[in-house]
Structure prediction request, 414 residues.
Amino acid sequence: YDVLRENNKIAHENYHLLKEHNIRSIDFMGSIGAGKTALIIKLAEKLRAKGLRVCAIAGDVTGDDDFTRMEVSGLDAVNCNTEHECHLDANIIKKTLSKIDLDKYDILFIENVGNLVCPADFPLGTDYRVVVISTTEGDDMVRKHHDIFTHSDIAILNKIDIASAVDVDPEIIANDYNKLTGGLKNIYKCSVKKDEGINEILAALKL
Amino acid sequence: YDVLRENNKIAHENYHLLKEHNIRSIDFMGSIGAGKTALIIKLAEKLRAKGLRVCAIAGDVTGDDDFTRMEVSGLDAVNCNTEHECHLDANIIKKTLSKIDLDKYDILFIENVGNLVCPADFPLGTDYRVVVISTTEGDDMVRKHHDIFTHSDIAILNKIDIASAVDVDPEIIANDYNKLTGGLKNIYKCSVKKDEGINEILAALKL
Ligand SMILES: Nc1nc2c(ncn2[C@@H]2O[C@H](COP(=O)(O)OP(=O)(O)OP(=O)(O)O)[C@@H](O)[C@H]2O)c(=O)[nH]1
Ligand SMILES: Nc1nc2c(ncn2[C@@H]2O[C@H](COP(=O)(O)OP(=O)(O)OP(=O)(O)O)[C@@H](O)[C@H]2O)c(=O)[nH]1
Ligand SMILES: [Mg+2]
Ligand SMILES: [Mg+2]
Ligand SMILES: [Zn+2]
Ligand SMILES: [Zn+2]
Prediction:
């Protein structure tokens, strides 16, 4: 499938470009409304407090809601609209990277379009690929979306503070994840709202 | 774009097939985990109580979670896996319809794959297209996904029972919807869990 091969070639170029500038990069994929933006803002706050320089690319189909939230929080950000695609690809990231002064940053966060299907097939060239889901989507997210969890490095289960309000047991999701990944990868439970489990995520991403 | 034209042609065939069998049909699109399955099960229960015969097609990328939940609830269902696509299309629905004895039913519910982007471009041939979102995804769903809300008939905002837990004001979402649709379409607030707002949805779908 040429589209995917072409994407991987450009992803490889992005990877080398980021390495030349000593930037550690993370692609945050995940379901619509799982808390990707909230998590990125929270992680960036903690990293800036440690003296690290962080930049983010806010991917979305349309609009600049996430970009604005990032900027308002004090996080340097660039808006990136796909207009039609339901996933970011390496080419749109290559173009977006050309707008950023990479020497000014240590860490790059990319927020992908909310979707648990297509982003799995389009690596962007980052060091880590993370999938963010939340309890409020139900306990079947892992069972229904094998590809994206096998094509990523870690998973994050957010909104554990309100799991009982949707009758969801986080352990069911964790067990499904361990079964699918053979126990080789970890899923991190957190609540961005309550600031719980965030430091474990920073450690897992070696930040 | 040939794919879309081909899809619309088959959708038209599906529409006529369903009309020949006097079946009213609804395509439930929406975000991942918004409550599409829970809503379909609840609507079917109320319709069966009125003596109507209901069947459902459970669309998903993989697995049979939703299909099983429907069957366990007493709703006749057929499982429909796309394997890779992040949306159902008219062709897969045509094939699935051939497995159903259409003379046995009055109403057909189709649950689409959870995704607020691509399903907008792929009508299936149903009478109504509905978009289900929920408060727990945040208050920006309408602002970020114009196409799917303009290519559908009504919208449903579920999980209003826990809006405050995610700091979301349902009125913001309703205002965005009214602005986008020029007040010509309605968004229905509901809580499937608390059985609130369900009868208004039945009325809106003329069921
Ligand atoms: N209760 C609770 N709500 C949360 C938490 N994290 C995020 N939220 C809420 O969940 C909603 C969605 O959060 P976002 O950060 O916009 O999620 P997102 O994944 O970036 O959403 P999209 O970019 O639109 O796909 C917002 O209303 C947040 O306030 C959490 O840990 N607990
Ligand atoms: N509090 C609350 N939880 C709800 C409501 N409706 C659904 N839920 C919960 O939300 C989660 C997702 O519901 P589902 O019916 O699986 O949603 P879905 O849209 O069919 O999900 P996918 O098919 O996986 O995209 C489940 O844990 C439900 O219990 C509601 O009105 N209020
Ligand atoms: Mg976001
Ligand atoms: Mg479902
Ligand atoms: Zn897709
Ligand atoms: Zn798609």
